[in-house]
Amino acid sequence: MRETSTDYERPYRPLPIRAANRVLAGLRAGPELSPDALLQAAEGRVGASDFGPSPLHEPLARLCASLEDEARLSPVGRLLVRERLLGLLTSRLRVERCLARRPDVRDMPLAPLTLIVGLQRTGTTLTHRLFTADPQRRWLASWEALSPAPLNHCAGLSASPRPRIRAARIAERSLRYLAPDFFAVHPVDADEAEEDVMLLDHTLLSTVSEATLRVPSYSAWLEEQDQRPAYRMMALLLRLLSAQRGTRHWVLKSPHHLEWLEVILELFPDTRVVWTHRDPAVAVPSFCSMVAHGRGIFSDSVDPREVGDEWLRKTARMVERALEARASHESQFVDVRYEDLVADPVAEMRRVYAVLGDRFTPDTERRMRAKLAVHPQHKHGRHRYDPADFGLDTARVHAAFTGYLERFPA
Would 10 be classed as within a structural domain? Predict the structure, then answer.
C-alpha cells in the first residue's frame, strides 16, 4: 500500500511543475498579489463590482502582505494562490449579483444546525460522512463550497449546477496531480461533503489560508478579529444554498469552529454540537503532517518544526476556548471518542442519534454502511508521519493540553 512521504522539506513535484518553476523563476516576474490587482481581475472576470458589505478589504490586504513577506511561495505556488483568491473574489461577486435578484433569500429562515467539531484528525470527517448518508440531512458539497452561487446568473437560482460540479472536479484532479499524498491525509472529492470553513473563507476570516500557507502575521491578526461577520456570511450562504437545493436539517463540520463556539452559539443558539475526541499526542502531529503536505503544494521551503511549534500552540488555544464556551451550553454537546467511532462506526452513530433524540432508521443504517464501503480507511494510501519530525512528543503535547485531558483523558 502506498505510504505518504515524510520528506516535508523536499515536496513532491511532477516533472512539468519542476520545469515551470525553473522557467518562471528565471523570468523573475510573477502575478501580482496586491489587493487592488486581485479585485480588479475578479471584477473583469465576472463583469460586476459589488462585493457586498461583509468584511473583505482589510482581510485581503493583511493576507496579501503576509503572502508577499512570509509565505516563501514557489513561482507555481504563487500562480495557484492567485487563482484561489480570484476564485473567492469572483464567488463573492456572483453571490451579491444573485442576491440582488433574489433579496428575499436574506430573510429566509435558516434550517437547524448540527455542527461537528473536534481537533483535526480526530474523526470529524468520518463522523460527517456518516451523517451525510442520512437523506434527512442537508450537507455542503465540495462544489457548493467552492461556488455557492450559480455561475450563470441569467438562469437565476434554477441554473444547472453542472458547470460548478465540473469546475470542482477539475480542481480535485489538479490537486491529485500536484499532491497525490495529500489525499491519503485528507481526501477531497468534488461530489462529497466539504468543510463549511470554505464558506467562512468568503470573508477571508478563516483558517483556510494558514492551514496551507506560511502566513504568521496574518494568523496572529486573525486570532484577534471578531468572527461574527464571518458566521453571518456563512448563514447567508447557507440560505442561498437552501434556496437552490432545498432546506433540511444542516449537518456541518470543521475543526475551525472549536475556536469560535461562543460566537456560533450566540448567533445560532439552537445548534447541536458533536465533538470528536482523540489523544492530542496523536492528533496534533497527524495534523502537522497535513499542514506540511499542504504547504508543500505552494512552497519549496517547508520547516516541519516550525509547523509543529505553530500548530501545537494554536490547537491548544482552540480547545481551551471551546471548553470555556461549552461550560454554559453543556446540554447541547454530544461527545464521540475516536476509538469507539473507528471500532464500530454504525453503533457509535446509533448512540449519537439517541443522545440527539433523532430517529435512526434501518434505511439510515443501510446507507451508512454503504458509505463506509465506498470510503474505506486508507483508500488513498496510508498516512505515515513521525511526531519527532515536528519537534513533538507525548509529554510536550500533553503538557499543552492539561485542561482538556483532565476532562477527556487520552
Answer: no
Read off the pTM: 0.93
Q: Contact, 275 vs 117, CB < 8 A?
A: yes
300 vs 377, higher pLDDT? 300
d(CA 263, CA 341): 28
Q: What residues make up the domain containing 397?
A: 15-407
Backbone region of residue 137 per phi and psi (left: phi > 0; alpha: psi in -120 to 50; beta: other values): beta
- Measured CA distances, 41 to 62, 81, 195, 238 (Å): 18, 14, 27, 27
**In 3D, which of 166, 163, 159, 161 has the Cα closest to residue 190?**
166
Which CATH number is 249's domain given? 3.40.50.300
pLDDT band per the 50, 70, 90 thresholds, residue 381: low
In a domain, 5, yes or no: no
3-state helix, strand, coil in the chain (%, to 5): 60, 5, 30
H/E segment holding residue 117: strand 113-118
* C-alpha–C-alpha distance, residues 94 and 90, integer Å: 6
Give the closest residue to 196 by CA, choosing from 234, 246, 248: 234
For residue 238, what are the contacts with CB-CB under 8 A and spacing of at least 6?
110, 111, 196, 199, 250
Q: Which residue in the block uniquely carries the three cell numbers 496510508? A: 382
Alpha-carbon radius of gyration of the chain = 21
* Confidence (pLDDT) at 1: 60
Residues 277 and 339: their CA atoms lie apart, in Å, by 9
Q: Match 437565476 to its residue by C-alpha cell.
A: 156
Structural domains in the chain (count): 1
| Cα separation, 348 vs 270, whole angstroms | 23
Q: Is residue 6 part of a domain?
A: no
Instruction: Kindly state the DSSP code that residue 375 receives in the 8-state scheme.
Output: S
**Distance separating alpha carbons of residues 155 and 329, to the nearest angstrom:** 43
